């Protein structure tokens, strides 16, 4: 009897110690656990079960006496004053002296930092080359790099002088007098839609992209032309790589940290990855109107874009060859369909040469060549473990 009681006491002690150890581990790891598991469960439940974003029609609207000025976008904190242009090209979308507005297929904005001259130059020489698109594809594209001012005061004068020389040579920079920092990306987004409405409203499409992505321009132009010929006439279009039910990041050491007082809800509205997406002209107008009404204090620009779109009744559309933050595999069979690929700060020129050669040789493949490419895409994209690239569905497109 004594031994049984003693054995029970031992079991209880072991259980107590085990419970205490588990609780200690949970306390130490709770922040990571909450970020990776709990927040996603709450977010997906809100997105797919509740599916309600009523706050976009109430708390985030700016009151009528605090509306943003229509002659300029707001500050990142939803401020009252607009920013002025330091460098601007109001005539970029004109057909020429006395010719009025040009028929622009795509107005292409590239978000760039002031010091990233080499990235901008690589884009000018490759997929952003307006002359190539006109001569080889027969379409009019207008390229503009969107910038703020250098955040480091000690370097600002030197960088700004270099920017003015660069713009004098290429005439493709637009810049406003806000600090070019991560927390002002929403300001940069508003600047793009403002510029579109003020100076190039006739553009059929608007694209915003990072300066470290690669765009397969022949494939993109072909896709946009197909949309224009469709019955819908390229209306209500917002296409890219969609994030659905994404939760706000609550880890304070994260670059994407958003405090509860800034965004208290468990889920963001659906949005496309800010690395590269396209909207039709009518959607660009709606987004611009939303930026005049919504508080722009949320500094994550692609999420703010999702909020604007949700408020205006616009939904994103998935395209399997918009990579979002993913990177396209290097293979000619991938180049056949690729639209964007992320993470190309140094290899843009070599990738452009490979992709263009692949496009030129595509028509000569024949049935067996196309069958081979489908098999290759399946082997590359449909692996069982996670890979940050196109989805398996892209293999069959």
From TrEMBL:
Location of this chain's protein in the cell: Golgi apparatus membrane
Origin: domain of life: Eukaryota
Any GO BP annotation: sphingolipid biosynthetic process
InterPro entries assigned: Glyco_trans_31 (IPR002659)
Keyword presence, Transmembrane helix: yes
One Gene Ontology term of the molecular function aspect: lactosylceramide 1,3-N-acetyl-beta-D-glucosaminyltransferase activity
Transferase among keywords: yes
Any single Pfam family the record assigns to this protein: Galactosyl_T
GO cellular component: Golgi membrane
Entry-linked Gene3D superfamilies: 3.90.550.50
Membrane topology: Single-pass type II membrane protein
Pathway: Protein modification; protein glycosylation
Enzyme Commission code: 2.4.1.-
Top enzyme category: transferase
Keywords linked to the UniProt accession: Glycoprotein, Glycosyltransferase, Golgi apparatus, Membrane, Signal-anchor, Transferase, Transmembrane, Transmembrane helix
Similarity section: Belongs to the glycosyltransferase 31 family.
Name under which the protein is recorded: Hexosyltransferase
Organism annotation: Kryptolebias marmoratus
Gene name tied to this protein: B3GNT5
């Amino acid at each position: 009897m004594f031994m049984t009681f003693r054995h029970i006491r031992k079991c209880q002690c072991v259980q107590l110690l085990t419970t205490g150890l588990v609780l200690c581990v949970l306390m130490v790891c709770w922040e990571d656990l909450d970020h990776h598991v709990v927040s996603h469960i709450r977010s997906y439940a809100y997105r797919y079960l509740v599916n309600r974003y009523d706050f976009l029609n109430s708390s985030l609207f700016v009151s009528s006496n605090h509306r943003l000025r229509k002659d300029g976008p707001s500050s990142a904190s939803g401020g009252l004053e607009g920013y002025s242009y330091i460098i601007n090209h109001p005539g970029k979308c004109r057909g020429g002296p006395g010719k009025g507005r040009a028929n622009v297929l795509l107005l292409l904005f590239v978000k760039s930092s002031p010091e990233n001259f080499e990235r901008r130059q690589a884009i000018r020489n490759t997929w952003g080359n307006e002359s190539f698109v006109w001569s080889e594809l027969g379409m009019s594209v207008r390229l503009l790099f969107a910038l703020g001012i250098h955040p480091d005061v000690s370097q600002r004068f030197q960088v700004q002088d270099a920017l003015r020389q660069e713009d004098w040579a290429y005439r493709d920079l637009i810049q406003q007098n806000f600090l070019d920092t991560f927390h002002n990306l929403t300001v940069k987004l508003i600047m793009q839609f403002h510029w579109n409405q003020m100076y190039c409203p006739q553009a059929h499409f608007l694209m915003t992209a990072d300066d470290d992505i690669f765009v397969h321009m022949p494939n993109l132009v072909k896709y946009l032309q197909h949309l224009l010929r469709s019955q819908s006439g390229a209306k209500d279009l917002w296409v890219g790589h969609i994030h659905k039910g994404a939760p706000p990041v609550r880890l304070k050491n994260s670059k994407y940290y958003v405090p509860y007082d800034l965004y208290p809800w468990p889920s963001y509205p659906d949005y496309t990855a800010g690395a590269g997406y396209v909207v039709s002209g009518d959607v660009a107008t709606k987004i611009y109107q939303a930026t005049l009404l919504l508080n722009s204090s949320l500094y994550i620009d692609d999420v703010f874009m999702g909020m604007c779109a949700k408020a205006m009744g616009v939904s994103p559309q998935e395209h399997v060859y918009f990579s979002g933050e993913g990177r396209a595999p290097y293979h000619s069979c991938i180049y056949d369909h690729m639209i964007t690929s992320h993470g190309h700060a140094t290899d843009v020129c070599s990738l452009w040469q490979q992709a263009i050669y692949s496009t030129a040789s595509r028509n000569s493949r024949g049935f067996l060549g196309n069958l081979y490419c489908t098999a290759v895409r399946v082997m590359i994209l449909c692996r069982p473990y996670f890979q940050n690239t196109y989805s398996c569905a892209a293999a069959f497109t």
